[in-house]
């Protein structure tokens, strides 16, 4: 019966569209022509409205009549325009940023980031790139990933670890997209800096749950980062000089203002300091962002974007490694009519590393390549019903590793681990449906299908057990190989299909508050192999297949959202419960590097995470900022039925390394005058779960530690305060050159937060001791930024 | 390959503003267990008749007295191929010795230890080892090509999987340095296995006149799995190290399975040599 009711509602909403007309168009920034994502367009006095999509497009359908169309966007002046809706029409807007001439406006409405209480979208954080740029950061390097960690539900595994963790998930469960291209490693310099150059970035959106049906392939989150299109009004440059790196971005119109370009580069120069201090080691990175677009006409736009980044490490003359991401994306926006918007993307991305070990005279090479085609459409039926649908296909090419001896005298043999190939496809449909004035729903379905392709041989194991429990010794052992099956190129090794429903609802309690509810299921077919507590650049991705099953997660979330005092303050409260099946765990003593039969090192496990997140923001005035607090648990249980035995930690639930019981982040910014702005961060969180010794014994003349149950200890409480000040010298209104200084102190009170604690014997006294490694003590920095 | 992990950590430490210090940490306390160090190593060119097994108990990690010998156990080794029995007599200091052991490569031996009315057993096969062909010093191998190192050369047998344990020690050092090896990437090749120290190590870099002991053991695959993890964990689990695990050897408690013993019953062939830097 319930279903019938919904269906009825569905059709009545479609039928009522008969006397309606549509106004559509795009919204851009007047100063540089950048399209604006997430601007709201409303018909005054009604609840009819829309939010612009990733390409700044909106479409509103309403009964004929005279209306005031209101455009509003964070940090921009509201625009009001009268329209007479008696036919379908196209209206493009260029809106103005709060400019310096309008000082009084800034004070009242600067950077308003209130909660959208009406949209069923939940578990989403949007970060304004300006907010990110103001936050104090280590060594003055603006870092999107680090800024995300100030939000509730987002942590990372401590200084010096790559990636980030969302709601107790692992770093490989985040889908990180840069202009839709998958980025496999988000960090430079082993996790100290992120690969995103803030000067080239327009929007950052993090979905922590309730992932829209158009995204697939990861179970924890989607980080959707969009590059700027480039200024199409005039040539402009911006850049900065910092302690670690320097940046330069150039942008301007092209093709007779029918298009634009953006080129942004960044390079580190830590090497200079190392050379000066006579250090034989070298460390460095650079990256390059490219974007260009061309408007054929009102309805057709072409975008080309690219990213290339590289890290280099050298340890004396004995060891050298380079690694990095590369991506390219060609997109075609086509507007079929006022209500039907489409985008076709062809994307390539790659992550690879190359290690040269001179001492053993060989190179070690590993890479993951993917080719992705996507077609996404959005149909704006009417003001109550919008439909997203589309399809995508990703072809993966994994090279888990190859050894190339660099000389004939090398004692190492050439070797190639089996290359793996796979095809991941998905189709989806998602509706955004206003059921009543108070109740809005978003419901969708994604079907994903993963085909692990042949072209390689796979081992067969006794009892089909790649890992078997040795009940005599009480340990997991590599299973007995009883043969090999060769799969031809045309053959499929294994395939998996999954239906992934995604539903959320928002119910408006009153003008200022709402409750939201969501459920989503997501499948993940590729996995990052890492038995270390921190992700390293040398970890390898592996696809699901005969022995490795896809991860499946289910997440429920419930939230309360409220704006106070005319949206000057906002409060977001969310709870979630998430379970994940088929998470990979590792047998004791697993060896992952250079291993051709990974299935012999891993066990199947399940994970669960739950928590409460609170985000309270002050959105307006001289002082803005937020307090974020998360109370959460993240646990894992490994009792692999196929391998038998008791499982890890006797099959009990144990904490994942991403478990943080308490996580408090406070960030604030105070605009003292036209010249000075002060910002500060404070972070306080439970230490990372770790495994400490619980005893020792003598063996081989050494004191050998016995270890307690996995992750049953914690590092000490982590806390840190950072401050920064931005100084903008006298502005000369007629001069295009604008400069600013950013001074910062990271970890003001020089807290030695433990990145790790290791246990061992002192080599001189033989006494056991615990050694703490703290990475950043107090670090001052200064950066000069400019634009013209 | 765990070399990388070490290198990454080294890099991180040397390049960033990191610091290391020794701190006090409160630890959990595990129940006391028997520790069986039954390493029956047959040095090539000797009879291998004299063998020692050491028994002790485990203690708290920061315990002041870590020498807790077990003197009242009964220890016996049996060759399962020939049924020959070897009784190890307690020396009342935790050592149990025999002078009649008869090592035969490829034969399988059983160990039986009776302690506190509980019986511990283990089984292992005696592994052969290839010869060290030569020992040389140089500077261009090792991490640093300005520092002296010593290399042990040997020819890895091609027809089988081989696993190695190396023990190196400079005169005056407190402990042997343990390294494990397998022939996965080097099968059938002439291999040079180097040993280098840097300024941060005890006694610093090697200089002319320094003398080192060099030992190479042929070990079983199961023992290799065990000792590899043991070595990795005894070096401290740092920033990029894998999560430490409970290390289980091959000594089972027949009477009470949960009360298993630490340590291992290994049977190896070993070649020993030494080298004095020129």
Record keyword descriptors for this entry.
heterodimer; A: 788 residues; mainly beta; Immunoglobulin-like; Maltoporin, Chain A; 2 domains; 22-stranded antiparallel β-barrel; five-stranded mixed beta sheet; 5 helices; 5% helix; globular; disordered N terminus; B: 278 residues; twelve-stranded mixed beta sheet; three-stranded antiparallel beta sheet; 2 helices; 16 strands
Briefly note the structural class of the backbone of chain B. Answer: mainly beta
Give the rounded overall mean pLDDT of chain B. 89
Q: Please report the number of helical segments of chain A.
A: 5
Radius of gyration of chain A: 27 Å
Proportion of residues in β-strands of chain B:
35-45%
Name the biggest interface.
A-B, 87 and 93 residues
Rg for CA atoms of chain B: 20 Å
Assembly annotation: heterodimer
Strand order of the largest sheet of chain B: 12-11-14-16-2-3-6-5-4-7-8-15
Number of strands of chain A: 53
Number of domains of chain B: 2
The CATH superfamily label of the largest domain in chain A reads TonB-dependent receptor, beta-barrel domain
Number of strands of chain B: 16
Query: What helical percentage do the residues of chain A reach?
Result: under 10%
Largest sheet of chain B: 12 strands, mixed
Tally of separate domains of chain A: 2
CATH architecture assignment of the largest domain in chain A = Beta Barrel
Give the averaged pLDDT of chain A, no decimals: 86
The CATH class of the largest domain in chain A is Mainly Beta
CATH fold label of the largest domain in chain B? Immunoglobulin-like
CATH class of the largest domain in chain B: Mainly Beta
Compact overview of the structure:
The complex is a heterodimer of chains A (788) and B (278). Chain A has 788 residues and is mainly beta. Chain A is built from five helices and 53 strands.
